[in-house]
């Protein structure tokens, strides 16, 4: 996220009311909520110069999350303490809590500084055209009205509006959408259709720029939505060009010929960074997620010899003994 240098840790009110045209949001990977982050490790400390200036502009880079749900949504159990701890480990400057809107989510949401992270209250709200993310908010925005009116409601509270789940949006050319600040970039059919070359080229340029400004982001910590939410999420899809990105110096790709990893597959996956199995996410689910990323030709959740060999090489690349 690029914005004027109004440090969140110095003035939460000012940071929560950035000028409408001054905030530029980028989807670092083209898959829904995919982000440059870790799975369970840490991406390293904040850079020595913080915030980082963006060359040729009067803007600065702030690291944050603008699509995050908590226990105040039906689809998350995360507490503010758990989210704040994750923000601390990942050196996140700000987080917009865009829970599915209820009176309670706006009234009881976390506002202000929690440690070194600025928390803002917002919402994910449906409308006839699609879904809007709006933040920061002090009162609920009206439900099921035209997107343009949702944007105006948000701006009246000093907030900004983003399209959410853009693959479901309709009628992008309708009047009233000019006030949008940003958009999630997705490919709903990433399992069936290739990403356009021009989009991938733009992504590579964007990622290189981000990585150059944030050298603490190591290759293993460039991940997709499916990596951080096995079974529940499948984006950016089987046809996402991870191998091409790795060739461009963005993320990792396994080399052929490694000796297959021995022993418990779940333990080996966790050493690489995948989450532990749980009641609703089995080891087979996590293996399938690994295959979705690193062996998209067959995603069956079976720890066969080829899958174990690919994991062994990746562990070697990140300095873990297979």
Number of strands: 11
How does the overall form come out from the CA principal axes?
globular
Give the structural class. Answer: alpha/beta
What's the SSE pattern?
A: EHEEEHEHEEEEHEEHHHHHH
Low-confidence blocks of residues: 6-42
What's the average pLDDT?
83
Give the count of helical stretches: 10
Structure description:
It is a single chain. Strand 8 (123-127) and strand 9 (130-135) form a beta hairpin. The chain is built from 10 helices and 11 strands. The protein has a 4-stranded mixed beta sheet, covered by helices on one side. The protein has a 4-stranded mixed beta sheet with strand order 8-9-10-11. The chain is an alpha/beta fold and 322 residues long. The chain folds into 2 domains: 2-24 and 59-183, no CATH class; 197-317, PGBD-like superfamily/PGBD (Muramoyl-pentapeptide Carboxypeptidase, domain 1). Residues 6-42 have low confidence and may be disordered.
Please specify the SSE layout and strand pairing.
Blueprint: E1 2-3, H1 12-15, E2 52-53, E3 60-61, E4 64-68, H2 80-89, E5 94-97, H3 103-108, E6 112-114, E7 117-121, E8 123-127, E9 130-135, H4 147-156, E10 160-164, E11 182-183, H5 197-213, H6 225-228, H7 242-247, H8 265-272, H9 283-294, H10 305-317
Parallel strand pairs: 4-5, 5-7, 10-11
Antiparallel strand pairs: 1-3, 2-3, 6-7, 8-9, 9-10
Helix pairs in contact: 8-10
């Amino acid at each position: 996220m690029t914005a004027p240098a109004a440090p969140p840790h110095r003035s939460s009110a000012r940071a929560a009311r950035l000028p409408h045209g001054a905030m530029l949001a980028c989807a670092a990977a083209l898959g829904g909520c995919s982000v440059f982050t870790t799975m369970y490790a840490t991406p390293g400390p904040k850079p020595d110069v913080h915030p980082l200036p963006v060359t040729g502009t009067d803007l600065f880079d702030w690291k944050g999350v603008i699509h995050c749900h908590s226990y105040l949504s039906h689809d998350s159990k995360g507490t503010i303490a758990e989210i704040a701890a994750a923000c601390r480990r990942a050196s996140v400057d700000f987080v917009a809590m865009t829970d599915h809107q209820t009176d309670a989510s706006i009234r009881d949401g976390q506002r202000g500084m929690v440690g070194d992270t600025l928390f803002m209250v917002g919402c994910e709200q449906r409308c006839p055209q699609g879904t809007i993310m709006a933040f920061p908010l002090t009162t609920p925005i009206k439900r099921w009205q035209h997107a343009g009116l949702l944007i105006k409601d948000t701006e009246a509270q000093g907030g900004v509006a983003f399209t959410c789940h853009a693959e479901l949006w309709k009628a992008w050319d309708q009047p009233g959408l000019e006030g949008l600040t940003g958009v999630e970039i997705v490919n709903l059919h990433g399992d069936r259709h290739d990403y356009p070359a021009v989009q991938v080229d733009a992504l590579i340029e964007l990622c290189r720029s981000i990585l150059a400004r944030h050298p603490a982001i190591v290759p293993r910590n460039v991940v997709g939505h499916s990596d951080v939410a096995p079974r529940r999420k499948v984006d950016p899809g089987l046809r996402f060009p991870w191998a091409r990105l790795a060739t461009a110096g963005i993320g990792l790709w396994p080399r052929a010929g490694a000796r297959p990893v021995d022993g418990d597959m779940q333990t080996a996956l966790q050493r690489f960074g995948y989450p532990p199995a749980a009641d609703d996410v089995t080891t087979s689910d996590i293996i399938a997620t690994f295959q979705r990323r690193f062996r998209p030709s067959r995603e069956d959740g079976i720890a066969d010899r080829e899958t174990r060999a690919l994991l062994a090489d990746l562990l070697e690349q990140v300095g873990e003994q297979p």
